[in-house]
Amino acid sequence: MALTLSLTLASLLALPVANGCGRDDSSAQNASAPSEGAPSAAAEAVPQPQTVPPPPDADAPEIVLAHGAPIELEKHLIKGQINIIDFYSQYCGPCRQISPHLRRLDQTRDDLTVIKVDINRPGVTGIDWGSPVARQFKLRSVPHFRVYDAQGRLLADGQQAYQMVIDYLQGKS
User: Fold this and answer.
1) Phi and psi for 157 in degrees, rounded to 5?
2) Is residue 79 included in any domain, yes or no?
3) 22-52: b or e for each residue (b if 16 or more CB lie within 10 Å)?
4) CA 130, CA 134: separation in Å to the nearest integer?
5) What is the pLDDT of residues 7-60, one digit of tens each?
6) How far is CA 20 from the centre of its chain?
7) Does residue 40 sit within a domain?
8) Cis bond upstream, residue 53 (ω within 30)
9) What is the rounded CA–CA span in Å between residue 95 and residue 114?
């Protein structure tokens, strides 16, 4: 299991945020409307996530917020803990790939909480770049992270936060 985890983490390290699921501005308007019928081309093009071992307690509830709606993150931060905010879409392969690692991190660290923010509105297939929460935080790629300290102050956003998350996953912080 340690070998699988280290190989998967190595693949995550090689995945800069800019190369995650990035916004294609030419199709941003089309992705914002709920689609009917067949899956969108964007949904069909999503690569399948690598197989990773399940987190220690796969049935434990995750904190998932927004579902595309605007959100006041500060109201959801857990005081006294480091808060990792993970903006994601179920249609993003890299988001699905890192998710079990974030869940494991959340379950094994008492000083840290992972809060997931789903950028997709119900009924929207493909990454919902037109959702109110995606527009609110000017998201251009997912996964996108924000890290808050135990007092609720923003420590890092975007690429810097991504590096902090990788360091937490590797046990460096």
Assistant:
1) -140, 145
2) yes
3) ebeeebbeebbeeeeeeebebeeebeebeeb
4) 6
5) 455 455 455 444 568 776 544 443 444 433 333 444 334 333 333 334 444 444
6) 10
7) no
8) no
9) 14
In a domain, 36, yes or no: no
In terms of C-beta density within 10 A (0-12 exposed, 13-18 middle, 19 or more buried), how is residue 145 classed? buried
- Tens of pLDDT, residues 59-102: 445 678 888 999 999 999 999 999 999 999 999 999 999 999 99
Mark out the alpha helices in the chain (DSSP H runs).
Answer: 2-13, 28-31, 41-44, 93-108, 132-136, 159-169
**Radius of gyration over alpha carbons of the chain, in Å?**
16
Whichever domain contains 85, its CATH number is 3.40.30.10
Domain assignment present for residue 29? The answer is no
Total of domains in the chain: 1
Residue numbers of the domain that contains 92: 2-22+54-169
